Amino acid sequence: MKQLSSYIDHTILKATATKDDIIQLCNEAKTYQFHSVCVNSCYATLAKEQLKNSPVKVCCVIGFPLGAMCTEAKIAETKQALSDGADEIDMVLNVGFFKSKDFDAVSKDIEAVKKCMPNLTLKVILETCHLDEDEIIKASEIAIQSGADFIKTSTGFGTGGATIEDVKLMKSVADGKAKIKASGGIKDHKTAMEYINLGVERLGTSSGIAIVTGKTSTESY
Amino acid sequence: MDISKFIDYTLLKATSSERDVINLCNEAKLNGFYAVCINTAYVALAKQLLDDTSIKIASVTGFPLGATSTAAKVYEAKKAVEDGADEIEMVMNLGFLKSRNFVSVLKDIIDVKLAIKDTPLKVILEISELNKNEIIKACSICLDANVDVIKTSSGFSKSGATLTATKIIKKTIKDQAQIMVSGGIEDYETAMKYLEAGADRIGTSKNINPASSSLQTRNAKIYKKYLDANHKQNNSEAQYSKMSQELR
């Protein structure tokens, strides 16, 4: 197995996160050798600056957390984030279009973002708390067909986070064609290992330090 | 008092479908609300539905965290206006405010304002995250940026508008901008309290117009009458056209 820390996107996405919070997040990511830091797009530049000369990547969220911004705005946000230094993008699927069964629009939304970053890692957040089993299967299929490198469970801002059952479903659809990122509510070493043993290749969490040091965190994401 | 003209009828949740947006616009027409408020992905649809009415379309940018890059907020706002939005609501960058990086907070707002020119700009402060001094500071930045409306809440944070915060905002900005309250305003009485406290606009996802509930009661009676008649006579076409006339 890879080192546990390399599974972790060290995450801070709350609206009130300050410059100092981001600097601390980046320092922790360097110390614990996390895969990336995951931040809102207004902090891409700052995170990149903090992480220059380090292998830690910058991951930015797009259309976050509702996924309901128009496609063109998602494209503009992505391009800006990439030019500010983002290495990976986590976009939220348009859940409203999905619920309207306008699968074509859902797919185009994802394809348009992928087109901005053909060689970089795109993760598509399904927000599984809003979806039933059939919808999770369908959303996973659409995301993968539209160019997602990862399908990701949750924003951490919905009504619930990752569950073992949802991840198993996603894994069965992905079947090697895409990787899985589990996020939302993963706060301790034991839970993290459960997901990794299911074949999850990335964890989004604010509790990365607790996870790698074997403690339990009080963070909510 | 008819408060329908104060109301932005709002649907911003992630799972809102096309059907939900259509219902929202129809109810807004029926009640004569001032505006509907929707996410940018649905502006073009709302524009189609409301094109022949005076109901305005408000849309959001950087919503609900306010933490998207300025460039992304600018682009989203511009695109929404192009698609037919009459008003833009942006969330203030709370992280910058909390970092005391007021220059960036102001720049974020002014850049959006410049991009949308004469389209009214509302700025959401998200008061649930701010203390009194921060609310006052946020208001003064909004005034420096010449925003049209200061709005209390996104509706996606831990809590919404409060009367206390509304009064603080009113005292700070006086009549230099309008105040819009939102988040948890779910009935007529509450809405009235805010209007008395100095609010100019109300954002709500609940249909709080008392006229509308009496209309709904009236309609329910009509539906019932024709449903009963329909069962007996089994002539759906005729029943339907009579019913639709009576509903008008």
From TrEMBL, chain A:
Annotated compartments: Cytoplasm
Q: Spell out the Pfam families in the cross-references.
A: DeoC
Enzyme class per UniProt: lyase
The region annotated as signal peptide is: none
Domain of life of the native organism: Bacteria
- Which reactions does this protein catalyse? 2-deoxy-D-ribose 5-phosphate = D-glyceraldehyde 3-phosphate + acetaldehyde
Protein name as catalogued: Deoxyribose-phosphate aldolase
One annotated Gene Ontology cellular component of this protein: cytoplasm
TrEMBL record, chain B:
The alphabetical list of record keywords is: Cytoplasm, Lyase, Schiff base
Residues annotated as the enzyme's active site: E89, K151
EC assignment: 4.1.2.4
Primary enzyme class: lyase
GO annotation terms (biological process): 2-deoxyribose 1-phosphate catabolic process; carbohydrate catabolic process; deoxyribonucleotide catabolic process
Example GO CC term: the record gives: cytoplasm
Catalysed reaction(s)? Answer: 2-deoxy-D-ribose 5-phosphate = D-glyceraldehyde 3-phosphate + acetaldehyde
What pathway or pathways are given for this protein in its record? Carbohydrate degradation; 2-deoxy-D-ribose 1-phosphate degradation; D-glyceraldehyde 3-phosphate and acetaldehyde from 2-deoxy-alpha-D-ribose 1-phosphate: step 2/2
Which cell locations does it reside in? Cytoplasm
Note the PANTHER family from the entry.
DEOXYRIBOSE-PHOSPHATE ALDOLASE
Similarity comment: family membership: Belongs to the DeoC/FbaB aldolase family. DeoC type 1 subfamily.
- Physiological role: Catalyzes a reversible aldol reaction between acetaldehyde and D-glyceraldehyde 3-phosphate to generate 2-deoxy-D-ribose 5-phosphate.
Q: Which protein is depicted? A: Deoxyribose-phosphate aldolase
Q: What's the source species' lineage? A: Bacteria, Pseudomonadati, Bacteroidota, Flavobacteriia, Flavobacteriales
Give the gene that encodes this protein.
deoC
